[in-house]
Amino acid sequence: MWLMRQAGRYLPEYNATRKKAGSFLDLCKNPELACEVTLQPIERFNLDAAILFSDILTIPDALGLELYFVEGEGPKFRKEIKSESDIEAIPLIDVTEKLDYVAAAVKTIRQSLNTDIPLIGFSGSPWTLACYSLSGGSSRDDFLRARKWLYSRPEMFKLLLDKLTIIVCDYCEMQISSGANVIMLFDSWGGLLPGHNLSDFSLKYLRRIIRHLKTAHDIKIITFVKGAGQHLNLIADLNCDAIGIDWMTSLRSAKDEIGHRCALQGNLDPAVLLGTQTHIEAEVKKLFSLFGNRAKGIGHIFNLGHGISQFTPPDNVSHLVEMVKKYSQQDS
After folding, report:
1. Tens digits of per-residue pLDDT, 91-104?
2. Boundaries of domain holding 246
3. Is 10 a catalytic residue?
4. N or C: lower Cβ tally within 10 Å for the chain?
């Protein structure tokens, strides 16, 4: 069991560390403080895994787009990709130089973390990184500007995806070499694509990354494509070790469809943690009931269907962990 965005603003100790850092991005770029917030949920809750504290947009930032955050609006870039020549000019960076602070954070965390607890490294998928990069940051219209590129200049879009794929491979390799035990690939916006374009503009590139990493390393890989529950068979074809399931997707259906091919991760609705502890217990019990018996060895990593809300009471997370342990043991 672990929780997406488990180190975050719902924890008072995280907010204190972030204030000390000065800003979210400064926190990401300070290896010692990134280690501190990575360990905070492990120290507070009985979780089974830690995940590197960072952000998927460190790659576009390293490419020179200059990431910053606006309160209430999310991530923005000071520089925009406006033309085909802008894409052609994007460099294939040396991640060990441009993103050395991430490697330092992974090393620091791994040295500080109990050796029995795995450390998850991660990256955004090429499609998701391209969506942000072509939209100038977050989007209120489902990344319409990026999707316009897809349908008007698909070859240039693919050139961007090719470049990002190479960089993501290098980035994940750097994290593995620095001490990450698992890699998670976040395709946060894959669900915006219809099936044929999901294959051509997202999964094709994820497959390249997974094949590259598994050829070079003995590493487990989790793939999370939010909003693509109707395409689980396509995702399972990527040869990842586990697939993250969002809360809109039936865990029982996912198990029946692909559970014999890989483990499943998920998928409690994050909003459940805003409810009462009685309702948290009921929803956890229901989730395990839906998943059914695990006697056949089908792997299940309990998680949320997306990131934990900043408004979640920490006591509710403690209760969640207790209920997961309780009903997981009953289901064994």
Report:
1. 999 999 999 999 99
2. 12-254
3. no
4. C
